[in-house]
Amino acid sequence: QVQLVESGGGLVQPGGSLRLSCVASGSRFRIGAMGWYRQLPGKQQRELVAVISSTGFYNYADSAKDRFTISRDSAKNTVYLQMNSLKPEDTALYYCNVEELSGGARLDHWGQGMQVTVSS
Questions:
Q1: At 89, is the secondary structure helix, strand, or coil?
Q2: What is the dihedral sign for C-alpha 31, 67, 63, 90?
Q3: Which of 80, 78, 94, 98 has its CA nearest to residue 23?
Q4: Which of 29, 30, 47, 50 lies most in the core, judged by the most C-beta atoms within 10 Å?
Q5: What is the rounded CA–CA span in Å between residue 118 and residue 120?
Q6: At residue 101, what are phi and psi to the nearest 5 degrees?
């Protein structure tokens, strides 16, 4: 069973920065893609923020391009999201997502979510 522990969320002023981290732990697991999603206030669905594959290919939501940077340390099973120039509209619950490769299957694992609030 893969477990995810997120950290780095909190309150920041507009224009500020935060760095989110997510560590995956468990026994005998292989990780594929790692990513970040968010749930905006009043919305039920989570939206993609950024994702990075096991080979380093990455993809960003338009809202994250030029401001956010996703990276991973595969040796530590950790994914990061550096968020700069934060805006009030970035306020959301942020979730880490890790794809576990199990045989021929891809299993999604989610973190517990953490609040990011951008406000003055």
A1: helix
A2: positive
A3: 78
A4: 50
A5: 7
A6: -95, 115
Name the residue among 91, 95, 92 with its Cα closest to residue 119: 91
Cβ neighbours of residue 51 closer than 8 Å, sequence gap 6 or more: 33, 34, 35, 36, 58, 59, 70, 97
One digit per residue, the tens of pLDDT, for the chain of length 120 reads 899 999 999 999 999 999 999 999 987 889 999 999 999 999 999 999 999 999 999 999 999 999 999 999 999 999 999 999 999 999 999 999 999 998 888 899 999 999 999 999
Structure tokens at 4: 């995810």
**CB-CB contact of 46 with 39 (8 Å):** yes
